[in-house]
Amino acid sequence: MNDVRRRAWMEGHLEWAAGEFGVRRTGAPVHTSRLHSVGCRVLDAGQDAWLRVVYADPEWGQGSYLGSNVAANEILGVPKPIVERWREWDDNGRRMRGELSTFVADRSVSAGMAPSTEPHLSDQWIADLNHALHALATHPLPKHGMDPNHLNDGIRAFFGVEVDIADVPWTTAHCDLHWANLTAPHLTILDWETWGKAPVGYDAASLLCATLAYPALADRLRTGLGDFLGPPTAHIAILTAATRYLRFADGGELTELALPIRRLALETIDQL
């Protein structure tokens, strides 16, 4: 279906889910950039909450990602929404899921993965992010997450470098850390749909790649997240993140980041 029809279809399910959850919509629908999910602010027994509807589709990904936001409720010490109620249903063979979560008052830093203007963030915000990533790293390593073979193939294809990512340390990670999934002025990490295991430092490296259009902020991240971006293990994490962003650029997205990310990757390769 085209984008206009998909928007209407998703908003119809959002309206239906509001009735099923017994909540009243108080905000306009907010769609993700690829129209994979839609959400809005609602009142649940007089309290603000967030209602979200998402669908399973082979174009988006394989696996049990529909349940990942609920599974992330077990992660402690990280500022994030909590899914309080959920249910699934089918629409002509397509699996749908509705989730009612705690409401986050602060807005995302950016509407997209990379901000269109330079974010102005306090030193405390960066310190809070560093603390959150450390807390996330202490969560028991899950079985699900990034595929080492896929990552190895990407690094080889883009940079001609042979590495064995399976041999580097792995940790629990958000796996999609960018500026649309972070709020300010108070830090909350949103969208835990793809969290799982990743090479150590991957989240910090992913955010760094999304920030390279703003060198001053990128330097602040290198300092504030130095525990993740400073050790030698960060070299593999940076190449992994760079590969993901360059795949986006190959598809016509985030093309403005392609050149600075290639520069970062080449500098990283020199340090291997």
Q: Which keywords apply here?
A:
single chain, alpha+beta, Phosphorylase Kinase, domain 1, Aminoglycoside 3'-phosphotransferase, Chain: A, domain 2, six-stranded antiparallel beta sheet, two-stranded antiparallel sheet, 10 strands
Quick synopsis:
By secondary structure, the protein is an alpha+beta fold. It has 9 helices and 10 strands. Strands 1, 2, 3, 4, 5 and 6 form a 6-stranded antiparallel β-sheet that branches. A two-stranded antiparallel sheet has the order 7-9.
Cα-atom radius of gyration: 19 Å
CATH fold-level label of the largest domain? Aminoglycoside 3'-phosphotransferase, Chain: A, domain 2
Mean pLDDT: 94
Number of domains: 2
CATH architecture heading of the largest domain: Alpha-Beta Complex
Structural class of the helices, strands and pairings?
alpha+beta
**Which term fits the overall shape?**
globular
In CATH, what is the homologous superfamily of the largest domain? Aminoglycoside phosphotransferase (APH), C-terminal lobe
Low-confidence stretches: none
Order of helices and strands: HEEEEHEEEHHEEEHHHHH
What is the class of the largest domain in the CATH system? Answer: Alpha Beta
Explained architecture:
The strands form three sheets. Strands 1, 2, 3, 4, 5 and 6 form a six-stranded antiparallel beta sheet that branches. Strands 7-9 form a two-stranded antiparallel sheet. The protein is globular and about 55 Å long. Strand 5 (83-91) and strand 6 (94-102) form a beta hairpin. It folds into two domains: 3-102, Phosphorylase Kinase, domain 1 (2-Layer Sandwich), CATH 3.30.200.20; 107-271, Alpha-Beta Complex (Aminoglycoside 3'-phosphotransferase, Chain: A, domain 2). The chain has nine helices and ten strands. The protein is of the alpha+beta class.
